[in-house]
Design a protein that fits this description.
Blueprint: H1 23-32, E1 36-38, H2 48-55, E2 61-64, E3 74-76, H3 82-89, H4 96-105, E4 111-112, E5 121-123, H5 128-131, E6 145-146, E7 149-154, E8 161-165, E9 168-172, E10 175-178, H6 184-194, E11 199-205, H7 209-214, H8 225-233, E12 238-241, E13 248-250, E14 255-269, E15 272-273, E16 279-280, E17 283-295, E18 301-302, H9 309-330, E19 334-339, E20 348-353, H10 360-371, E21 377-381, H11 390-400, H12 403-406, E22 407-414, E23 426-433, H13 458-461, H14 469-473
Parallel strand pairs: 1-2, 3-18, 4-12, 20-21, 21-23
Antiparallel strand pairs: 2-3, 5-17, 6-9, 7-8, 7-11, 9-10, 10-17, 11-14, 12-13, 14-17, 15-16, 19-20, 22-23
Helix pairs in contact: 4-8, 4-9, 9-10
The chain binds manganese (II) ion.
Length: about 475
């Protein structure tokens, strides 16, 4: 056993937590480095906030003072690049997936605290849109949605918690429509509903980047994702008990909605603009009744624009981490994986292998397709191809792949219901083996390169061409 990170031996120095362990600290780091933009005061909550956040996407987080005249500011775009996630976790980008996976394997139990910041202000009279600036994002969204709310549930008998982000439609003063895909939140709820009971929940808005990432971990049911956040920060995450239930929430959160998932109640929810850049349809879905709202003094409301880079990457990076570790268990030749943006960070997986035997790439394709039903197309490449660069992957397909020999197609499989080309989620899988055959002459697949090119100090060897450039050439 190694020492518990939250209880170091006497005299040991505890390393400072990564900068991503605090939401306000992270936003300030973004500001100091030119990556936080202030919107003009009073941006419209309907499309205005989402539009400006999207325009700055990829380069800057956005903070909106008095959105729609509301006193609570909105922030968006906390994690817009893979490099930002590595920075928030305080690891080099090359270690991002391995560090995340390690945190999943070695969770750190949370630490209970009293008098938490998230309960500085308490409202028992709930009127969601009066209390909070909840934006409407895409054109055909049904209305205002809470999109960055961590839905925390607690098993009433075991006390085990689950954390996940579900889209939450504002359906009334104290009512939210929730899309619960068939994962852990739904399993917790179904057990209670079968016994005729509601399930206590908390919706936590405005958490640190590490907790945000941890909420997306693909770990078995019974694993409290908050403990993965503790592992990422290197010390126990401070949590506190809700005022009206036993659910434990991150103590430093900006805003907490306390409530219940209602047994035997379904109401219309949707449409809502989702990660594949299409709308999730309107249907009868689960309902949360909000019974209390607590928040910090002067809280910040975090929103994730549906289908934005923040939305895609938050789901994508934890998935990459579990693909890498799952594949490596069966295939030690796997070196790296990537879920590309064009594939909505869900459907297109590129896998890099250090190929040792013929046929291996096709086994990797079959293995990858079995890890998660969302993956639709898998491309396997050699170690000289950067899987994080879609142009490199396309080049490998263009020059190393023959469709009659290297293509794998499996019909009638389970896919993503949000992929509109499937029939209710049923569709085909495809694998492309873009690796070099082992038995060809070495020169056939040797990539061209200019010797010494990468070592040249371009700046010291060049200058911008001046006005008299033609004369200078013959001087
Ligand atoms: Mn879970």
């Amino acid at each position: 056993m190694t020492a518990h990170p939250s209880a170091p031996p006497a005299g040991a120095t505890v390393p400072a937590p990564p900068v991503g362990a605090s939401m306000r600290g992270w936003l300030d780091q973004l500001r100091r480095t030119g990556r936080l933009t202030l919107g003009s005061p009073g941006m419209d909550l309907v499309h205005g906030v989402a539009g400006l956040a999207n325009r700055l996407e990829g380069t800057s987080a956005t903070a909106f003072p008095r959105p729609g005249g509301h006193p609570v500011p909105v922030v968006s775009g906390l994690l817009l690049q893979r490099a930002w996630m590595a920075e928030a976790m305080d690891v080099p980008q090359s270690e991002l997936l391995r560090r995340f996976e390690q945190a999943c394997l070695e969770p750190v139990p949370s630490r209970e605290v009293t008098d938490p910041p998230c309960q500085q202000v308490v409202h028992h009279e709930v009127d969601l849109t009066r209390l909070l600036p909840i934006p409407t994002h895409n054109e055909h969204d049904r209305g205002a949605y809470i999109t960055a709310g961590l839905l925390i549930t607690r098993h009433p008998d075991t006390g085990v918690q689950n954390v996940a982000i579900h889209r939450l439609q504002v359906s009334g003063r104290d009512r939210l429509g929730a899309l619960l895909l068939p994962r852990h939140t739904l399993a917790f709820f179904q057990e209670q509903e079968a016994a005729g009971r509601d399930l206590d929940v908390a919706v936590v808005i405005g958490v640190d980047p590490l907790t945000l990432l941890a909420s997306q971990a693909i770990v078995p049911i019974g694993h409290d994702e908050l403990e993965i956040s503790g592992a990422l920060r290197g010390s126990a995450l401070p949590v506190t008990r809700c005022l009206t239930s036993d659910v434990r929430v991150p103590a430093d959160a900006e805003i907490v909605l306390e409530g219940r998932l209602l047994a035997d109640v379904r109401e219309a929810e949707g449409p809502f603009g989702e990660f594949p850049q299409y709308y999730g349809e309107r249907a009868l879905r689960h309902v949360i009744e909000v019974t209390a709202v607590t928040h910090r003094r002067r809280p910040l409301f975090h929103t994730i624009v549906g289908g934005s880079m923040e939305h895609l990457l938050l789901g994508g990076i934890p998935r990459e981490a579990s693909f890498l570790s799952d594949l490596r268990r069966s295939f030690p030749s796997v070196r790296d994986v990537h879920l590309s943006r064009g594939g909505t960070c869900r459907y297109h997986l590129a896998v890099q292998i250090d190929k040792r035997s013929e046929g291996e790439a096709k086994n990797v394709i079959l293995g990858a397709l079995a890890v998660h039903y969302d993956v639709k197309h898998v491309t396997v490449v050699d170690t000289d191809v950067d899987v994080h660069n879609p142009t490199e992957v396309e080049w490998a397909v263009a020059t190393r792949f023959q469709a009659d020999r290297d293509l794998v197609v499996v019909a009638g499989t389970q896919g993503s219901k949000l992929d509109p080309s499937t029939v209710d989620g049923v569709g085909a899988k495809m694998g492309l083996d873009a690796t070099v055959p082992l038995s060809v002459p070495e020169m056939t697949f040797t990539r061209i390169r200019v010797p010494g090119e990468l070592e040249l100090d371009v700046e010291s060897l060049t200058e911008p061409a001046p006005a008299d450039w033609l004369e200078r050439l013959s001087r």
